[in-house]
Amino acid sequence: TITSDTTNARAARVAALVTGSGYGKSHALLSAAEAWAGSAGGAVVAPHCHLYITYNLEQQLFGDRNPSNAKAAFLLRVLLATQGHSNTTSDRALAVFFQKYSFTDIHSLVLDAVACLQAWLSGKGPGVHFVLAVDECIKLKLDNESLDCVRFVVSVLGELTDKLRGVGHKCLAVVSSLSNQPFETPSDRPLARVKLPAPNPNHLIEFVAVALRQREQKEGKWAGAHLLAGAHWRSATFAVDLLAGRENLTVSDLSHSLAARLCSGMTPALQSDTRNYILQEYKTDKDAALKEFPLAEMFIDQNGSIPPCIAWMLFAELPDGCSKSPIHDFFANSLSVDARCQLEVCSASFDRFKAQYQLPMLPKGIPIIFPDGNHNFPYHEWFYNLTLPVLASGIVDESSIIQGENFCMEGPQPGKIYHPSAQNHRHIDRALVAQHPEGQKCLVLYQDKVNGDLGKATKDLAAAAELAGIWMKDKGIKSVLCVAQVLDCRTSQIDGFAYPLIILTEHSGSLRRFYRGTFVGAVKYQRVRSIAK
Q: What gap in Å lies between CA 41 and CA 183, rounded to an integer?
C-alpha cells in the first residue's frame, strides 16, 4: 500500500510494474483504477478514473529525452491529458514548444499541475480513485544508455501524486517497464515493486485452440501457432490473427511474420543481449544468463524462455555447406511427417545448433547414470566438457548405421551426424562423435521415442553400444555415451545398463534441463502431436 507517509522521508511513492513482453502490461495499467476501486469487494465499484501516459507509438520525445526538460515535459503531458489530448498529439505539441522554451522552476510547475488535477478530479465525483499510469518509460533511455530522464520522470511522478494524496485524494502512481533496469529515482528512493502473476500456459493453449476452431481452422494450424508462440501471450494473439483465413501458411511463414511484428524496432543491443542470453542460458542457467545480458529480460516469457519466433530470427545464419539454418530445421515442423520422425529431426537439428555455436554437448547438471549406479561419479565432468565440432555437411547417411552384426559408421568423423534414413534401421536413431578439449573422442548414440518405452530404448542402445565396441577400439575412441529420449516415460531409473546413460523424460524434468526453455517446447510438442493423432 502506498500512502502519504510523513513519518518516513524515504517511503515509496510509486508502484513499479515489471512483466516482460507480451503479458498484458498496458492492459493492467489501463484497468488498474477500476480494479483498485472494486478491491473492497462490494457489488458497486467506487468512482474511478485514470490518465495514461505512454512513451511508445514511435513518438519523437523531443523534450522528454532531454535531461534538462524531462520533468517539465512529463508535467505538461499530464496537463494536456486532462484536456483530452492523446499521447501522440501531446508529443507533437511538446516538440514545437521545447524548440523555443524551457522551464527552470519545476517546483512551481508541480504546484500548477496539482491545482489542475484537483480541478479535473472534482468533476469525477466524491471519493474517486485516480491512477496516473506511465507506460514504456524505458523509451526515455538516451543513446549513451543514460537513464537520467527515466529517473527524473519517476521522481516528479512520485512528487506530484504524493501532493495529491496529501490533500486527501485517493491517488496511485504506477510506472511500467519490460525490465527492472529503469526503476530508480535520482535520490535512490525505493519503488514498490509489483509483479503480475504469470498466465497459465494451459490457458494459452486453450485460447489458441478455441480461437482458431471458431474460425474453422484445421487442428494443425492451432498446434503450429502454439509451437511458434511458446508460452508468450502476445505471440499467440499475433499468431491467431495471422492464421485467420490463411490456408497455406507454413510454420516458416508464421515464424517470419511473428518475428517481424514482435521485433520491429529491436535495437542492435537488444538483439545482441537476447541472442547471447539464449546461448548463455544453455551453458549456465536463467539467472546467471540474465545477470550477464539484462536486456533480454524484455523478451523472456513466463518459463524463462525467449519466444521461438525470436530465436528463429536471431539464429538465421547458415553453417558452411548447409542450405538451412539448424534452428529453422528445429522449429519447422512438417505435419506431413509423423511425430516420431519429426522428433528425430528436431533432436538432430539441436545437435547441429550446438555445434554451430560451439556449445557444450551436454548442459552441466544433466544426470548421467553410470554402470555402477553412482550418479556422482567424477567422470561426469569429462562428459560435461564434450563439444561437437562444426558440422560441415549437416545430417548425413543414406542407409542404416548398423547392418547385420556390423557397425558401419565411417569414422571417426566428428563433423557429421549420422541419421539413418531407412525405415527399419536397427538399434539407434542417430550417432555422432563428440570431442574432449584434451583430444579424446566419445561416440554418442541416441534413441528418440515419443512414447514411454524405456525398456525397448535401452535394450536397443545397449545392443548398438556392444556392436560399436570393436569399431571404437579400432578408431581410437575412448568412450560411449547413450541417450534415451523417451518423452512419456514415468521413471528415470534403470538397472543393469552397462554404459554411461542419459534418460530424457518430460516427467523427470530432464528434458527441460537438456534443451532449456527456448527449445524444449518444440520437442514436447511431438508428444502432443502423437497423442492427438
A: 31
CB 214 within 8 A of CB 173: no
Confidence of residue 95 (pLDDT cuts 50, 70, 90): very high
Q: Which amino acid is at 85?
A: H
Question: Could you tell me the three cell numbers for 367?
Answer: 544426470
N residues, the chain: 533
- Supply 490's cell numbers: 514415468
Neighbours of 296 (CB within 10 A): 26
Residues 101, 56, 272, CA angle at the centre, nearest 5°? 115
Alpha-carbon radius of gyration of the chain: 28
Residues in contact with 56: Cβ distance below 8 Å, sequence separation at least 6, in sequence order: 135, 136, 139
Strand order across the 129-135 sheet: 48-54, 129-135, 170-177, 15-18, 192-195
pLDDT of residue 524: 85
d(CA 252, CA 256): 6
- Which CB contacts under 8 angstroms, 24+ apart, belong to 255-261? 255/228, 255/308, 255/309, 255/312, 255/313, 255/331, 255/332, 256/309, 256/312, 256/313, 258/228, 258/229, 258/307, 258/309, 259/309, 259/310, 259/312, 259/313
Q: What is the DSSP letter of 533?
A: -
Winning range, highest mean pLDDT, from 254-258, 388-392, 395-399, 519-523: 519-523
The answer, yes or no, to whether the previous bond of 319 is cis (omega within 30 of 0) is no
Nearest Cα residue to 516 out of 381, 390, 370, 353: 353
Distance CA 431, CA 410 (A): 11
User: Is 446 within 8 Å of 483 (Cβ atoms)?
Assistant: yes
- For residue 479, the tally of other CB atoms under 10 A from its CB is 18
Name the DSSP letter for residue 40. Answer: T
- CB count, 10 Å around CB of 19? 19
Question: From CA 180, how far away is CA 271, in angstroms rounded?
Answer: 18
Sheet with 501-504, strands from edge to edge, namely 395-396, 417-418, 430-435, 441-449, 479-486, 501-504
503: closest CA among 516, 487, 521, 519? 487
Contact between residue 485 and residue 468 where contact means Cβ atoms under 8 Å apart? no
Cα separation, 82 vs 84, in Å, equals 5
What is the bridge-based pairing of β-strands 395-396 and 192-195?
unpaired
* Residue 454, helix vs strand vs coil: helix
381: its cell numbers? 565432468
Coil/strand/helix, residue 493: coil
The phi, psi pair for 14, rounded to 5°, reads -130, 140
- Supply 93's cell numbers: 505539441
Q: Worst-scoring range by mean pLDDT, 75-84, 293-302, 414-423, 493-502?
A: 414-423
**Whether the model pTM is above 0.70:** yes
Q: What are phi and psi of 170, to 5 degrees?
A: -85, 100
